[in-house]
């Protein structure tokens, strides 16, 4: 187990390196990506641009710039005071990136954890019901609804929900976007998040339901399920202890990766549509402004969660499926 | 002998499928007495496994149709409500399946799976059930059962897993154990051990056994009576001795001829039955074996009844050939097989 963790950590460093390097490389290669001329404003003097270039280190070779950026990103994670140019700062706003990401975390966490609970619960419910009633009208109805859920783009659904439920002039059911801290006012916190939760979950519910349905139908044909029935177990026990237990193993992988992605700033559309100033919203802002340091910050932040949750899944698998050993 | 433990009368099982009605079992009758071993023999698709599953109500489905009766201690399993059937499953009639690799749930320990069966039927604590599970594992010959009970199925060898499966089947001391090809997936050396174990446990537990196989060699050692099935029906039945020494159906000859034998001169090739089993949707007219039978003649377009045609009273078959013809042709088929 110790060797497993060490190997995982090394892998994590490698992944973060590759991801950050790719982002950096793409950024310096895209046209209009020269940050100095952008920072100098409209009609700048050439001297101005040169100064900025020197001050921010844009005149150095790209690998030195990259190393310097990584160093700054690392500094942002360490406690204590850092110099003006020793942390990752936005080219546009000069804000400390680590600080900005930290500011977005409560909104993103609230959105993602709430939505994950909803989509996992209803995804499993939909999957179980449609597998148990496979082929009958209730299965068809649920499958159709799930398909509609999967097919609705988040930006469209979000806007429709806002239009119908939050933008009525008198007595709107829900507030129109924004975020209220949980510690500040729990009721308003939930009230503000219901629509985003729903919007983010709906796609996953449909998808998980369909995956689980087909997993369960496969497992139901397994010999050990027949054994369980031949033992005289009640149908509910056969379904939950034998069929569902084995069908959930692949769902765990899906869930961990999806959850890591939205937690790491992947819920860009939902956060943007509902004006939740979370990590995803921050990513969207930065990409729009071709602002490398925040893009790099959010990328590293997101990649960290993906790698972390992949490792967690690998450890969970040993417990979920005893045939697998960490090797 | 009083009322038999299990009585199957005119059992028919059909499945409605997209391609048509599959006549999986098409008229099966037999009786089973306490302490006896009944062997059901036939090729794949002859309906033997469906018969076995039906005895436990495991073929129940919205697309299944049943006819006839399966009387267990006088009660019809076919019409019994599901809840009552559940009390019988695993408790009074238990089943051992073909492939021990896939028949145990891979995510639960062997002990858990046995305990689960015990507490489903008896109001005892898990602790007591666990102690019984250890005893059962010992009885089926698993060494260091106290440790093995906490093994996952994949940690056991095929033979050990099948032993665990047998322990599971015996966990509630059933009256009938149905073993569906219990040795097919095992090494030959393990096969003999498992068969001997089944036979020993039958006496220890005073159960009746239904042994389903495609291999007459398997039933030869422990069965008392044998039922030969073809295309969903019984084509020959009788006591083991009769069936081995005086087989009446050309199909049975084919099965017997396809067993390799060490006590016969070496043949060029092992005998095989030509062709493949008929579709169970469009069953042949007349004798079901006619299209593959080398001795078929015009009379075979009428299906013969399963009746007693030889001197021995318990021996039934479905073949129109005269006794003299049978003895002569059989000798040719079995190439030197002794004629009783």
Task: Describe the protein.
The complex is a heterodimer of chains A (327) and B (340). Chain A folds into two domains: 2-77, no CATH class; 104-320, MetI-like (MetI-like fold, Orthogonal Bundle). Chain A contains 13 helices and no strands. Chain A has helices at 2-29, 35-39, 46-56, 62-77, 97-132, 137-151, 154-166, 186-220, 223-230, 235-266, 268-273, 279-288, 292-320. In chain A, helix 5 packs antiparallel against helix 6 (137-151) and helix 7 crosses helix 8 (186-220). Chain A starts with a helix and ends in a 7-residue tail after the last helix. The mean pLDDT of chain A is 88. In chain B, helix 8 (188-205) links the parallel strand 7 and strand 8. The longest helix of chain B is centred in the middle third of the chain and has 18 residues, at 188-205. Among the domains of chain B are: 102-171, no CATH class; 241-334, no CATH class. Chains A and B meet through helix 9 and helix 10 of A and helix 2 and helix 4 of B.
Summarize this, please?
The complex is a heterodimer of chains A (327) and B (340). Chain A is built from 13 helices and no strands.
Considering the chains and any ligands shown, give keywords for the structure.
heterodimer, A: 327 residues, mainly alpha, MetI-like fold, 2 domains, B: 340 residues, alpha/beta, four-stranded antiparallel β-sheet
């Amino acid at each position: 187990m110790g060797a497993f963790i060490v190997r995982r950590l090394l892998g994590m460093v490698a992944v973060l390196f590759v991801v950050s390097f790719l982002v950096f490389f793409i950024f310096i290669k895209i046209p209009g990506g020269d940050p100095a001329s952008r920072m100098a404003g409209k009609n700048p003097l050439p001297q101005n641009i040169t100064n900025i270039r020197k001050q921010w280190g844009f005149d150095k070779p790209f690998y030195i710039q990259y190393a310097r950026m990584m160093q700054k990103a690392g500094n942002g994670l360490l406690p204590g005071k850092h110099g003006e140019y020793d942390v990752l700062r936005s080219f546009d706003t000069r804000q400390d990136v680590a600080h900005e990401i930290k500011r977005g975390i409560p909104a993103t966490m609230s959105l993602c954890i709430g939505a994950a609970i909803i989509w996992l619960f209803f995804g499993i419910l939909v999957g179980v019901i449609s597998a148990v009633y496979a082929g009958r009208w209730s299965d068809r109805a649920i499958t159709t609804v799930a398909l509609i859920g999967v097919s609705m783009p988040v930006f469209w659904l979000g806007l429709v929900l806002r239009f119908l439920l939050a933008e009525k002039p008198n007595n709107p059911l829900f507030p129109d976007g924004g975020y209220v801290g949980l510690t500040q006012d729990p009721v308003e916190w939930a009230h503000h998040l219901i629509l985003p939760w729903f919007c983010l979950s709906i796609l996953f519910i449909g998808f998980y339901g369909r995956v689980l349905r087909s997993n369960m139908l496969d497992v139901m044909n397994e010999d050990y399920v027949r054994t369980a029935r031949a033992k005289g177990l009640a149908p509910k026990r056969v379904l939950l202890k034998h069929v569902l237990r084995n069908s959930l193993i692949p769902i765990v992988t899906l869930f961990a990766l999806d959850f890591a992605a939205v937690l790491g700033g992947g819920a860009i559309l939902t956060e943007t549509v509902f004006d939740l100033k979370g990590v995803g919203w921050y990513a969207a802002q930065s990409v729009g402004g071709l602002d490398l340091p925040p893009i790099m910050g959010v990328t590293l932040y997101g990649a960290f969660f993906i790698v972390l949750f992949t490792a967690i899944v690998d450890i969970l698998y040993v417990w979920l499926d005893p045939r697998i050993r960490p090797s | 002998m009083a009322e038999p433990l299990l009585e199957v009368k005119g059992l028919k099982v059909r499945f409605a499928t997209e391609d048509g009605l599959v006549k999986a079992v098409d008229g099966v009758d037999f009786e089973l007495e306490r302490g006896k071993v009944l062997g059901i023999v036939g090729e794949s698709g002859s309906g033997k496994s469906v018969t076995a599953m039906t005895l436990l109500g495991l073929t129940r489905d919205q697309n299944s149709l049943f006819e006839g009766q399966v009387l267990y201690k006088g009660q019809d399993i076919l019409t019994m409500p599901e809840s009552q059937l559940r009390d019988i499953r695993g408790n009074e009639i238990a089943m051992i399946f073909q492939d021990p690799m896939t028949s145990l749930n891979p995510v639960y320990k062997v002990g858990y799976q046995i305990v689960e069966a015990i507490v489903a039927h008896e109001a005892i604590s898990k602790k007591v059930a666990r102690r019984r599970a250890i005893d059962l594992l010992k009885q089926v010959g698993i060494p260091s059962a106290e440790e093995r009970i906490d093994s996952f199925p994949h940690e056991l060898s095929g033979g050990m897993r099948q032993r665990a499966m047998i322990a599971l089947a015996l966990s509630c001391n059933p009256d009938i154990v149905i073993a569906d090809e219990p040795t097919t997936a095992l090494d030959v050396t393990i096969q003999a051990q498992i068969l001997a174990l089944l036979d020993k446990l039958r006496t220890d537990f005073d159960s009746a056994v239904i042994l389903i196989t495609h291999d007459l060699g398997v039933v030869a050692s422990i069965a008392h009576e044998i039922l030969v099935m073809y295309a969903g029906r019984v084509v020959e039945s009788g006591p083991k001795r009769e069936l081995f020494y005086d087989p009446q159906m050309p199909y049975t000859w084919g099965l017997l001829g396809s067993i390799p034998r060490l006590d016969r001169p070496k043949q060029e090739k092992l005998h095989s039955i030509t062709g493949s089993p008929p579709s169970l949707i469009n069953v042949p007219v007349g004798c079901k074996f006619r299209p593959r039978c080398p001795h078929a003649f015009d009379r075979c377009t009428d299906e013969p009844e399963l009746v007693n045609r030889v001197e021995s009273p318990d021996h039934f078959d479905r073949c129109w050939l005269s006794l003299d013809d049978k003895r002569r042709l059989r000798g040719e088929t079995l190439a030197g097989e002794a004629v009783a």
